[in-house]
Amino acid sequence: MWFVAGILIVLLTLVRTLPWIYREIPVSSDNSWDVALNLFVQRGSLAGQDYVFTFGPLGFLYNKTFFPATFNLKILLQAVFCIATTTVMILQGKKLFANPFLTVLWIYCLVSLYGFFGDVFFLAAPVLLANQYFFLDDRDGKKRASFETMLLVCLLALSAEVKFTFFVAGVWLMAFITLDQVLIKRARPTLLLVFTAVFVLAWLLAGQPLVNLPTYLATSLVVASGHSEAMSYSETNWQWPICATIISTGLLLLCFAQLAFKRLGKAFPIAVLAESGVFF
Fold it and tell me: What is the pLDDT of residues 81-118, one digit of tens each?
């Protein structure tokens, strides 16, 4: 029953998520960067050298613009992300709810409301990973990472090559997970090794030499630093969304901190700091 329900939920998520109604070229001039990300892949351009932007070699996955040379690959990789994150959500739901019906209903409602949006689509990995590792994995003597954790670490490494801010969030989260593994669990930093291996392999498969990675990170940091200053606040009624975001973020961290304290005791600051990296 769980297998059948899981398949149905995954299929529903694919229908709700993948860009069946894609953005056709030409797009508006303000969105020309989205087309350019696909063009960079077609030409084999080097991130940080041939183009300077905060998107990495997998940045073409971020949106749903149709580009003939990359669209099939875009759909395939987005489907992998979608299936993997939904599978983890189902497995987490089995641990969160004692009643299978409530689990399926909970996930079904989430998926029904869910739509594709770049940041949300890729930031699912660090959020699910923080919850899985610090709250759901067995911390009573077992040092081996769960299947869900390993899968999310791989997704985190891939999403880190989509956008520079995802890279920062991923590295930040992995740093505190590594601290927990080494200092609290007294285990080897296996998850950090998996994250590094998947990231390096994906970077090389994307046609990017490793010697170019520091250049990409350095240029992306400069662009990201000036991005907020360049954005205009002249739009009307921007104050309320900003204030609502700050309040929501604060409440989320407070709730997360309370759960972490109950679960981890004095080690709870590590979990809270790990979660905070998502808000970069």
Answer: 999 998 998 888 888 777 777 777 777 777 766 666 67
Instruction: Tell me which residue of 276, 195, 218 sits closest to 48, measured CA to CA.
Output: 218
pLDDT given for residue 32 in this prediction:
81
Domain ranges of the chain: 2-218+242-279
d(CA 153, CA 160): 11
Higher pLDDT, residue 49 or 25: 49
Q: Would the pLDDT of 208 be above 60?
A: yes
pTM value is: 0.84
Q: How confident is the model at residue 237 (pLDDT cuts 50, 70, 90)?
A: low
Distance separating alpha carbons of residues 201 and 151, to the nearest angstrom: 16
